[in-house]
Specification:
The structure holds 2 protein chains of 2 kinds. By secondary structure, chain A is an alpha/beta fold. Chain A has 13 helices and 19 strands. Chain A folds into 2 domains: 260 residues, Aconitase, domain 3, CATH 3.30.499.10; 155 residues, Aconitase, domain 3, CATH 3.30.499.10. Chain A has a 5-stranded parallel β-sheet with strand order 4-3-2-5-6, with helices on both faces. Chain A has a 4-stranded parallel β-sheet with strand order 10-9-8-11. A 4-stranded parallel β-sheet of chain A has the order 15-14-18-19, with helices on one face. Chain A is globular and about 55 Å long. Chain A starts with a helix and ends in an 11-residue tail after the last helix. Chain B starts with a strand and ends in a 6-residue tail after the last helix. Chain B has a single domain, classed as Alpha-Beta Barrel (Aconitase, domain 4), CATH 3.20.19.10. Chain B is built from 6 helices and 7 strands. The chains are: A alpha/beta, B alpha/beta.
Chain lengths: 440, 180
């Protein structure tokens, strides 16, 4: 019997010829990622369990990325970055993307920003490999045809000491997307459509494998947007088969060898769904759940107070290009916050052009707030002084990934999740708006 | 050894995510530091909508509800281990939900902080906050003393002994899987 992409990766990582859904197996880990929020706790578990003088299993396979609470006066948050720095030094961790000068992030050449995008950008996401991270959106990296999932501090501490983890093999739910992508749709619309269909628990304990000609035509950044949100359906991981698009992206960023694997034609799926994307319309997830789907045009009477464009799933270079396409030549009606995921994305805002103007010029001309320093920022609320945080019960259209109560700060704030097109169109009207109103 | 946990319940419904269990602004607390572990506990469930009432009384750092009753998909959202830890740190012993999000369930076992039992029936619509219940580990049952009714639970299975031991590391040592 054939295996799925996920099963093949896990078979290889557990040194078996075959694995089946439901089996508990020990896997060898290729990369462990942690950040400033869960890193200190992970390090605490590692030291408690393996000893104060213990050495990590492999100093080149652990990636430490400060990204969550960086630009804040919160002393504990600042201390947590110091803990990462001390540990990186003590253990000789090769990949630590440090920030020491918080006043000017540009003065920190090593600082990247949001971990999931930094991992991809720095060549740590490779087809066929196993990546664990202390962050639920680690599933982002499934876009590269790898197995990637989020874990807690204790499991991460175990990996730090041993390079292994005991996991259950997930059954695979396949989503086949065919048809030509309409000009007004983005990957965020596709994943919000799917989550709305299967619910926030619809893929619990399972892999979401995305396939079909629509997926093959997506860029790497759009594929990441899709896989990033597998967790919002409860999925263990998301996957997309590697192809030339993947190889071009990865090989431009790393020389490390990798081996892509593919789903067999006779693989077994837990479920199999097909979509004709040419029939889909722009959607939003209404408060307070990522599966509370509505058509953007059905929410035209929802008055909003602000728009937020940022995060791992909605603050990549292409996300800003998409927003610029809508915003160019118009004025925003509500405060519009822009948070590039990484320092590279930030630079792109000042160098990449859309119809003759840089993205930054377009945003400032349309009245957006100046782009902020790259980090997770208000996607998950954070300390009270976090840029863009919802501190009052306002209504926000956001390109982020989650909208349960309190996700962006104030627990009665209302968050509408949307694509960068829909978010930008909403900024221009002050209401939740279908981007087709601004696309001719 | 028979095991029964008795106490007053706090009832919530579906999709209680980790931001409601422990809002992200408190994630600067590092759970492996004992004083911060305690403090984390004092913020447990503070992100819940106000209609649920207070999970921890004003001025207290521990809850008077050792048992939580929930609907589907309890603990969804982030992978933050701070969620089961905050609950355990403030005195929660057991959650009885219809179902759990994957990472939360795993983190319960990994940390040994609390027992994630699964109910067969939708208890969150039958039970009310403040009722007195017992969870009987040998019979796989929950008894609502206020209602005078008994409900079967799904067996907790191999996760039970791991939590008894105090988490995966303690369990692995106890059973000889790891030496030190």
């Amino acid at each position: 019997m054939g295996m799925t992409l996920t099963e093949k990766i896990l078979a290889k990582a557990s040194r078996r010829s075959v694995v089946q859904p439901g089996e508990n197996i020990w896997v060898d880990v290729d990369v462990l990622m942690t950040h400033d929020v869960c890193g200190p706790g992970t390090i605490g578990v590692f030291k408690r369990e393996f000893g104060a003088d213990a050495k990590v299993w492999d100093s080149e396979k652990i990636v430490l990325i400060p990204d969550h609470y960086i630009f804040t006066a919160d002393e504990r948050a600042n201390r947590n970055v110091d803990i990462l720095r001390d540990f990186a030094k003590e253990q000789g961790i090769k990949y630590f993307y440090d920030i020491s000068d918080r006043a000017d992030f540009k003065a920190n050449p090593d600082y990247k920003g949001v971990c999931h995008i930094a991992l991809a950008q720095e060549g740590h996401t490779r087809p066929g490999e196993v990546l664990f991270g202390t962050d639920s959106h680690t599933c982002n990296a499934g876009a590269f045809g790898q197995f990637a999932t989020g874990i807690g501090n204790t499991d991460a501490g175990f990996i730090m000491g041993t390079g292994k983890l005991l996991i259950k093999v997930p059954a695979t739910m396949r989503f086949v997307l065919n048809g030509e992508m309409p000009d007004y749709l983005l990957a965020k619309d596709l994943i919000l459509q799917i989550i709305g269909d299967i619910s926030v628990a619809g893929a619990t304990y399972r892999t979401m494998e995305f396939a079909g000609e629509t997926i093959q035509n997506l860029t790497m950044e759009e594929r990441m947007t899709l896989c990033n949100m597998a967790i919002e359906a409860g999925g263990k991981n998301g996957t997309i088969a590697a192809d030339q698009t993947t190889f071009d992206y990865v090989q431009a960023r790393t020389n490390k060898p990798f081996e892509a694997v593919y789903t067999d034609p006779d693989a077994q799926f837990y479920s199999d769904r097909a979509y004709d994307v040419s029939q889909l319309e722009p959607v939003v997830a209404q408060p307070h759940s990522p599966d509370n789907r509505a058509l953007a045009r059905e929410c035209r009477d929802v008055k909003i107070d602000r728009v937020y464009i940022g995060s791992c799933t909605g603050g990549k270079t292409e996300d800003f290009i998409h927003a610029a396409r809508i915003l160019k030549g118009h004025n925003v009606k509500v405060p519009t916050y822009l948070v590039p995921a990484t320092q590279k994305v930030y630079e792109d805002l000042f160098t990449q052009k859309y119809e003759g103007q840089t993205l930054s010029e377009i945003f400032l001309a349309s009245g957006c707030i100046e782009p902020a320093a790259p980090s997770c920022a208000a996607c998950l609320g954070g300390p009270k002084d976090t840029f863009g945080r919802m501190n009052t019960p306002e209504v926000c259209v956001s390109t982020t990934n989650r909208n349960f109560p309190g996700r962006m700060g104030e627990k009665t704030a209302q968050i509408y999740l949307a694509s960068p097109y829909t978010a930008a169109a909403s900024a221009l009207t002050g209401y939740v708006t279908d981007p087709r109103e601004f696309l001719s | 050894m028979s095991k029964v946990i008795r106490g007053v319940v706090f009832v919530v419904d579906d999709n209680i995510d980790t931001d409601q269990i422990i809002p992200a602004e408190y994630l600067t607390l590092v759970p492996s530091k004992p004083d911060e572990y305690e403090k984390l506990g004092s913020y447990a469930m503070v992100g819940l909508p106000d209609r649920y009432g207070k999970f921890i009384a004003a001025g207290e750092i521990k809850t008077s509800y050792p048992i939580i009753i929930a609907g589907e998909n309890f603990g969804c959202g982030s992978s933050r281990e701070h969620a089961p830890i905050a609950l355990g740190a403030c005195g929660v012993k057991v959650v009885v939900a219809q179902s759990y999000a994957r990472i939360f369930f795993r983190n319960c076992a990994a940390t040994g902080e609390l027992y994630p039992w699964e109910s067969i029936e939708r208890l969150c619509e039958e039970f009310e906050t403040g009722q007195e219940v017992s969870v009987d580990f040998d019979r796989n049952q929950i008894i609502n003393h206020t209602l005078g009714k008994v409900y079967d639970l799904k067996p907790i299975g191999e996760v039970g002994p791991v939590i008894d031991a105090g988490g995966i590391f303690a369990y692995a040592r106890q059973t000889g899987m790891i030496s030190r």
